[in-house]
Amino acid sequence: MSHPTATVSSPATASSAPAAEPAPVIEIIGLSKRYDSGFEALKQVDLEIRRGEIFALLGPNGAGKTTLISIICGLVNASAGQVLVDGHDNVSAYRAARAKIGLVPQELTSDAFETVWNTVRFSRGLFGRKPDDAHIERVLKSLSLWDKRKNKLITLSGGMKRRVLIAKALAHEPEILFLDEPTAGVDVALRRDMWEVVRELRASGVTIILTTHYIEEAEEMADRIGVINGGEIVLVREKQALMRQLGSKQLTLQLQQPLASVPPALSHYPLALDEGGSVLVYTYDASDPNAQGQVPISTLLNDIEAAGIRFKDLHTKQSSLEEIFVKLVRERQ
Amino acid sequence: MNLQAVRAIYCFEMARAGRTLLQSLVSPVISTSLYFVVFGAAIGSRIQEVEGVSYGAFIVPGLIMLMLLTQSVSNASFGIFFPKFTGTIYEVMSAPISYFEIVLGYVGAAASKSAVLGLVILGTANFFVDLHILHPFMMLLFLVLTAITFSLLGFIIGIWADSFEKLQLVPLLIITPLTFLGGSFYSIDMLPSVWQAVTLANPVVYLVSGFRWSFYGISDVSVVASLVMVFVFLGVSLAVVNWIFRTGYRLRP
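The joint structure predicted for all components is written out below.
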């Protein structure tokens, strides 16, 4: 899932990336936003989005996700800082910058009385592209909207409306697609369909930035993950690296006979008893086999057997992105 | 210049009028016809000629102006308010399109609709009264400039309004009274001298007067004053629209 040329990067290291690395498709430099109400939605955000990747922006409500996207797309004015879209400043060269971007907003907004076909065609024109019915047909077919093309938007279900918004965002053949909470309120089957659509888009070379509350969505799709909290980018990592770095693993053994305590012979291991002594839990760091007190699993199992402990089952579990995310946000608070 | 975008907005707005033909065309034509029946035929037959023009014919320019002002404002204000209300404005604001092009699309469509409506009402009036247009070019100029100016005003109202109530407030409380008191149905000479002076503070008087002059060559104020007033309106509206876009007022926080 990870990007072939990607390296671990963070806000701090982003600007010192090796020269050989291709230029980022979006470069955000010192971006701040303070609304008239005094609320500081973004604080000096630096971020780079790589060409062709799926970047997931995670964060709790009010973290600044939508403000960040809105500034990049031109919906909100920044208080300070700069956004470069494929090298074009999104304020002074807004035409070149915006032409490259497609935005699928969080809210299900639509012209209720328009047909699917007309509204998608309108979007293409709005972005300055000549009519191309063949392209619109391809987009509608890829989103399973072709049969609905003559339907008025008011007659469509929520999931279908979401697809129409994606079709509208793709009508002008953007190189970068922003999906703000793309699967909010969408049922599981449709969500999986949409993930498939997003993967196909990425395969066609489109860079995708998505914000989501659903950690499984980021876990499933993203190449890199950025966590934003309180208007600051808390971290940016390759998804796999993040899970390795921050995720601890647990080996759980279901014992044949409950134990009152961990035998002295095993006291040097970070072992704990659970469920009334019938479960033995070993917590370890999968990314660092040389960590203190850590030995290969086979050595531990041999020692357990030597101590006369018999088990009937075992399984391992890795922290989900959600657990990592909650931990990160708590740490910052 | 993103002409494709201007075209897209313009066609979208015109298509909206097409979908609501009953509301945007038939309804103003019916209400104008009612004015003709009531003021022109029923009451007008008891009123003597005004400056050599039959009362029925005299009120035609005023009626067209009344419809032109109210429809321009309501078309343009609704055109921009509705996407704001539904949230679809995000697409326009994120598109590679300049402020000027946005205005051209929305205001152009609203002005076209009301100008066409003005001509349709003119045609309708022709069924009721004997019409003469002394200065057809000037008539069209007044028609088009007024449609553009008041569509700009409507656009401003649509951006300012954050509720349907506010959207109706200016047309109902300001535009309609000013038009009714602006000499649509009478010559200001018919008023007592004090009210004549007060009426001259009503900008709509200049529009109706100039427009009526283009029909019959008679006017309450000089044609030059009328033209100057139209351009002053246009200038003020353009300045306000420019300020809105420069500051992002109610559009781009």
